[in-house]
Task: structure prediction
Amino acid sequence: MTITTLSSREFNQGASEAKRATDRGPVFITDRGKPAHVLLSFADYQQLTKQRRNIADALAMPGSATIGFGPPRAAIQSRPVDFS
Result:
């Protein structure tokens, strides 16, 4: 994947080239030297916004085995009840 960076002026003068560049990866468009927008192909956008419907799907997604998750064990203690 190649990231292409264009200024707003370059994008305005060459929108067709920017659209073709999305075949290779995202196109960052800058305003006054700072990233302002990202142009993606529709396929990349769909993949990015794909929603997982349940926890089983989320746990089955590629790369989930490498995510470190070690929550602390809950310490639940009983207390005496005062019915007065």
Observations:
- Residues 42-49 form the longest helix (8 residues).
- DSSP finds four helices and three strands in the chain.
- The radius of gyration is 24 Å.
